[in-house]
C-alpha cells in the first residue's frame, strides 16, 4: 500500500493526491526532512526511511533535487507535528495497483508522485 495526501493546489485549481512532501530547510538532511514531513502531513512515523530514488526536477529552470523515500514499518506517531499554516490535508491509503492505475487515468498527475509509484511498481516486479 501507499499513503497519499489529498490537498487543494490553488496554482492548478484542483485537489491532488500526492506523496507526503515538503521544503528542505537550509542545512537539513533530506532524510530528516522526509521523517518530519511524514509526521506533519500524515501523523505517521516509521522504523526508518529507505531511499527509493533522487532526481533533479526541472534542470532547465532550477537546481531543485527531490529525494523520494520509502517508509519501513509505518505506524501512527506518538506525537503529531503541526501542519504549516497554509496546509489542509487528508490522507488516503491505496493499494499500489490502484495508485498506478490512477497515474494512468490522470487521477494522480503530480510528477514526484507518478515517479514514486512507477518506481515502486518496477521494484515490486
UniProtKB/TrEMBL annotation:
<protein>
    <submittedName>
        <fullName>NUDIX hydrolase</fullName>
    </submittedName>
</protein>
<dbReference type="Pfam" id="PF00293">
    <property type="entry name" value="NUDIX"/>
</dbReference>
<dbReference type="GO" id="GO:0005829">
    <property type="term" value="C:cytosol"/>
</dbReference>
<dbReference type="GO" id="GO:0019693">
    <property type="term" value="P:ribose phosphate metabolic process"/>
</dbReference>
<dbReference type="GO" id="GO:0006753">
    <property type="term" value="P:nucleoside phosphate metabolic process"/>
</dbReference>
<dbReference type="GO" id="GO:0016787">
    <property type="term" value="F:hydrolase activity"/>
</dbReference>
<feature type="domain" description="Nudix hydrolase">
    <location>
        <begin position="1"/>
        <end position="116"/>
    </location>
</feature>
<keyword id="KW-0378">Hydrolase</keyword>
<dbReference type="InterPro" id="IPR000086">
    <property type="entry name" value="NUDIX_hydrolase_dom"/>
</dbReference>
<dbReference type="InterPro" id="IPR015797">
    <property type="entry name" value="NUDIX_hydrolase-like_dom_sf"/>
</dbReference>
Amino acid at each position: 500500500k501507499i499513503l497519499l495526501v489529498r490537498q487543494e493546489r490553488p496554482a492548478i485549481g484542483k485537489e491532488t493526491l500526492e506523496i507526503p512532501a515538503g521544503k528542505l530547510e537550509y542545512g537539513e538532511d533530506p532524510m530528516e526532512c522526509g521523517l518530519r514531513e511524514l509526521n506533519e502531513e500524515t501523523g505517521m512515523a516509521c522504523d526508518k526511511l529507505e531511499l527509493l530514488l533522487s532526481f533533479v526536477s526541472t534542470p532547465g529552470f532550477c537546481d531543485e533535487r527531490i529525494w523520494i523515500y520509502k517508509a519501513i514499518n509505518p505506524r501512527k506517531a506518538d506525537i503529531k507535528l503541526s501542519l504549516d499554516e497554509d496546509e489542509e490535508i487528508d490522507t488516503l491509503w491505496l493499494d499500489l495497483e490502484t495508485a498506478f492505475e490512477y497515474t494512468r487515468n490522470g487521477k494522480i498527475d503530480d510528477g514526484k508522485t507518478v515517479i514514486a509509484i512507477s518506481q515502486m511498481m518496477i521494484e515490486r516486479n
